[in-house]
Amino acid sequence: LLSIKEISFKGLIYTDYAVFTTALALGLTQSLYYDGDMLATNSYTASNLNDELVFVSKELYYEEIEEIATKVSGDVVVQVQGLIGMFHSMRPLVSNYKDYLSASFDEKSEQNSLYDEERDLYYPILETDDGSFIMGGKEIALIDQLDLLSEIKVGMLKIDGFMQSDEYVLEMSKTYLNALNELTQDLSAYKANKSKYIKKVEEIGSRPIDKGFFFKPTLYKVKK
Amino acid sequence: MNKVELLAPAGSLEKLYVAIDYGADAVYIGGQEFGLRANADNFSIEEIKTACEYAHDRNAKVYVTVNIIFHDENFEGLDEYLVALENAGVDALIVADLYAITKCQEVIPNMEIHLSTQQSVINHRAVNFFHQKGVHRVVLAREANKGEIKELVEKSNAEIEVFIHGGVCISYSGRCTLSNHMTARDSNRGGCSQNCRWEFDLFNQEKNISAENVMFSMNPKDLMQVEHIVDMIKDGVVSLKVEGRMRSVHYIATVISTYRKLIDDYYRLGDDFVYSNYYENELQKSANRVLASQYYTGMPSNKELQYDSRAEHPTQEFIGIIKEVNGTDVTLEQRNFFRPGDLVEVFGPEITTTEFIMGEIFDIDGNSLDAARHPKQIIKTKIDVELYPKNMLRKVRK
Questions:
Q1: How far apart are CA B322 and CA B332, in angstroms?
Q2: Is the minimum CB–CB distance between A100 and chain B shorter than 8 Å?
């Protein structure tokens, strides 16, 4: 944190509260934004320490996002494009398997994936020095839902670049900006072009897409 | 020096009674709302009250989990629930979400708050952040090793609790939504369907690089820290926690009584205490999964994972619970198949574990039986060793 203290940037996004307390202790003047990843699922927790930008979990249904947006004063941030992280372990799980088999393959390849036969999905698995990450089998793509996101008062759209190329991030950003501009200037034209935008993001990416949890609520309790 | 706390799981009143009778200093349970075992048979408020009365009469404590990660739709009813828990006599709440911490302080400000391992706290600054928010104790992430635990205790303002035995998440706790993605069940609200224990083919691009006979899996062996308990006590850990609210009474009795004995032996003998394999051998009698130390001594390897599920050995030794003792006339409740002539051992908090040969057995009407086949069947027999009601019987495998 000391090394970035004097750099001019708007804010620091953190997940571990240790970053928050350390940044305060060091006198960082930049804003501190909590992105609890899977743990920022309600309006209070997501906005408690700073509600200027309110990062919410990717597992939320759009009505839940809407409820949060009505309760906080700042901008709600929603991931609209990219892979969704669904698992993080400290363990080197691909290396563990490789060692168990005494096999020879690249445990840190970005091309490794786990195949779920029942759902016919490949979940990217990336092993790094920080552990093993497993991502969803489809990328979220909400470029055709920008009108709804605007209606429910989402203030910032996030494109996630994890396991993506620089080109992917650049092209996606341009495409979303075009869509947002059209939405602002001519709503009917945006609506008419939704399928065009979806086709474009499919061309930029290389994985199947869906709407994540935006229209798919998860169960709190299973009825017996 | 305060004695370290032995904290047991209990999924029912029966298990809670067993946990306390077999030596737990405190028991944690789930209520019917806001807990991470959403679909288990959790405790009603009346049962929680009964549990607290039973525990407090025996100088034990009861903690209740309120450890879901809240969505706004779950806010409703929380205030009333917290008040009901306080009125029931609960000693502390185990919470995970900042919202729940704040609500506890607003609604029941005298209640002790423990931070769940779902926050995966593994550094002292995060501990102290939550302490400032009102948390009295932090249940550390299971990823913490010996050196980190020691440092955390030294630098933290909150009490430190660690898991010592039972099932573990292969991910950082709370950092997994495999269930959400694969089965639409919210793992952070009690719906975990343990998809991490499934087997998968591992691909690199289009090529399947898994072995034909051993698919990729992330199935961790169960945690067992029995060798390290003394170090944890010396390093200042306040509470030693056993996982397993869904496990059997036999499991709870065996695990809790073994750790109870180890802790008491250490406090009694001090520097003269010598660790022996006795404790691990006892724990193995309840194990239906292979056990390992996991992170305490360093990063786990493939040896802490279970690639071959055939190596697991379902527990079958537990055969019954003593109900009545009148001299050598004993009434017991059957839990698994046994027959006269089986080599059996009896164990319990008041006695030294003792082996004997099961003699002739009778049903409740006095009819002689060639075997006890029916779960919960009442069996009468004669046993000529010291034993008491609530002691347990298991077959001995030589």
A1: 4
A2: yes
Cα B168 to its chain centre, rounded Å, is 11
| First-to-final CA distance of chain B | 41
Going by C-alpha positions, the residue among B250, B378, B257 that lies closest to residue B323 is B378
Cα separation of A180 and A161, whole Å? Answer: 19
> How far is residue B167 CA from its own chain's centroid?
8
Residue of B nearest to A129 (CA): B299
Select from B192, B377, B98 the least CA-distant residue to A48.
B98
Query: A108 in helix, strand or coil?
Result: coil
A105 with B209: Cβ contact below 8 A = yes
Dig out the tokens for B392 from the structure.
């347990």
In A, which residues are within 8 Å of B71 by CB distance?
Answer: 41-42, 60, 64, 220
Q: Among B177, B185, B301, whose Cβ lies nearest the Cβ of A219?
A: B185
Q: Mind listing the pLDDT tens digit for each residue in A119-149?
A: 999 999 999 999 999 999 999 999 999 999 9
**Residue with structure tokens 């945690």?**
B223
Stated pTM of the model: 0.95
Q: What share of chain B is helix, strand, coil (3-state, %, to 5)?
A: 30, 25, 40
The DSSP symbol for B301 reads -
Output B351-354 pairs: Cβ under 8 A, ≥24 positions apart. B351/B386, B351/B387, B351/B388, B351/B391, B353/B282, B354/B385, B354/B386, B354/B387
Helices (H) and strands (E) in chain A, counts: 8, 11
Which string of DSSP letters, residue by residue, matches A111-133? TEEEEETTTTEEEEEEEETTEEE
Alpha-carbon distance of B5 to B139, in angstroms, equals 13
**Coil, strand, or helix at residue A1?**
coil
**How many CB pairs below 8 A link A and B?**
181
Residue A162, chain B, CB below 8 Å: the answer is: no
Report whether B259 contacts B5 (CB < 8 A): no
- What's residue B311's pLDDT? 62
- Which 8-state DSSP code applies to residue B305? B
Burial of A159 (0-12, 13-18, 19+ CB in 10 A): middle
Check CB contact under 8 Å for B299 and A115: no
Mean pLDDT for back-to-back runs of 10 residues, chain B (398 residues): 93 96 97 81 94 98 96 95 98 97 97 97 98 98 97 98 96 94 92 92 96 93 96 98 93 96 97 96 87 94 86 72 97 96 95 94 97 96 96 89
Nearest residue to B280 (alpha-carbon basis) of B268, B296, B299, B293: B293
Note whether A94 contacts B: Cβ–Cβ < 8 A: yes
Q: Which residue pairs from B18-22 have beta carbons closer than 8 angstroms and sit at least 24 positions apart in sequence?
A: B18/B249, B18/B252, B18/B253, B18/B256, B18/B390, B19/B252, B19/B256, B20/B54, B20/B55, B20/B58, B20/B60, B21/B349, B21/B390, B22/B252, B22/B253, B22/B256, B22/B257, B22/B260, B22/B348, B22/B349
| Rounded alpha-carbon distances, angstroms, from residue B117 to A127, B224, B305, B358 | 24, 17, 21, 44
Q: Are A74 and A46 in contact (CB under 8 A)?
A: no
Q: For position A224, what pLDDT does the model report? A: 45
Interchain contact A206–B (C-beta under 8 A): no
Strand B351-357 versus strand B343-348 pairing type: antiparallel
Identity of the residue numbered B267: Y
pLDDT at A222: 53
- Contact predicate B46/B28, CB 8 Å: no
Q: Which amino acid is at B359?
A: G
